[in-house]
Here is the input.
Amino acid sequence: MDIVMVTPECAPVAKVGGLGDVVHGLSRELAVRGHGVAVVLPKYDCLRYDRIEGFGPCGEDLHIPYFDQSISCSVFSGMVDGLQAYFIEPRSHHNFFNRGVYYGHGDDPERFAVFSRAALEFLVKTGRHPDVIHCHDWQTGLVPVLLEEVYRARGLRHPRTCYTLHNVRHQGTVGAHVLGMVGLLPAELMAPDRLLDHRRHDSANVMKGGIVYASAVTTVSPRYAQEIRHTDQGCGLQETLEHHAGKLSGILNGIDTHVWNPEIDPLIARPYTAARLDDKYENKHALRRRLGLSEAFKPIVAVVGRLDRQKGSPLIQYGLGFALANHAQAVLLGAAVEPDIDHEFQALKREIGDSPDCSLTLGYDEELAHLIYAGAEILLVPSAYEPCGLTQMIGLKYGTVPVVREIGGLADTVVDANYADRAFEERTGYVFRNFDAKGLESALWRAIGLWHRHPVYFRQLQVNGMRVDNSWERSGEAYVSLYQTIRAR
Here is the structure.
């Protein structure tokens, strides 16, 4: 099959979070399976150009509508980890993608509406008629809309669209003028069964448009697909999702086992496997040396990732304190975007000072992240909501037992050691239900307690997790099956 990814992110050249990793990992898996894959991205000025091979203009000059005028767009191409990638640059005084950042500007809806139109114009101009156009999150929600309303009539009759919802809390609510800006007809689209926002009846909802018009809609875990239909996790889109439930499915993300694999990881002190788990402890010693922690008879409880409300920042702070008070060491690697949360963690870092049992690194360090996964024994992921989550899957791969909240992809990937109706060989971590201190205490205490009192059973949990297949091979097969289904319609 011929597959085109239209996306705002693709690691390692344009990555803000997990979306970039997902596009990269899935695209590589599809290419390994023999499918033709191309990735279309905006040409941000902050791209990692050092990770693009053969970067240069590809000779295409696009012209797309912009209100009653037009915008010219240049297209550049290059290879990213063996993937063919195209980068679209609108030439305009608005400098849509020359901002030094990927997102965060008031005109983000306009920026990505222009990109979505240009991506389809690029396919028409180059005569490419892929089997599937796979678009991601609200930034490309207009792609299925534009395909059906404009580009079918211009010859793109062959492609089907797959639209993946990575995070439903960000939906792209825009003024109707944004639709008209790129050549759509607001009078026809501003209807309850199309793009009219469910809360603001003077606005269009770009994510809703993608759901309504796409051939298939996916989320990044099966549990999240149910949550957004039946709970407030749908953030107002429940009725639309229920109406289109027949084309909605959840496919769990994978992790890139060429990058996250303790058997071959060049960034850790000593490689190890489930059969050589003792070698993991050389990484624990290396982690302690790097962070200045004492060589005490205690497990290391780790937090790796963003520090925000989605990831459960209040419970992260509470969990660190609980670990220290209950015969464990604690390490954290993460950054907060919101100033108030950053202030809280900066204050906590000052309070901890030079503790021999705790280290907080406020930022992101790729090498340190690998060493933490390899050196810690327990990984804390107390998310308020979690569409999928990669952290807990990486932890499992590294034999670092996850303590997670029973939500979204966390519930799909971690099997509780005590209460699951599964054989012990299938249990992999600790799960708590309520988003509160009491729930976290129960799960974290069970993990720490098992490490101290029953090391043989704790070791078996580690081995169980390392044997779980969370690679893109499994997820890639599910996406290929979905693509084949929508092609046949």
DSSP finds 17 helices and 17 strands in the chain. The mean pLDDT is 96. The two ends are 15 Å apart (CA to CA). Residues 186 and 335 are 40 Å apart (CA to CA).
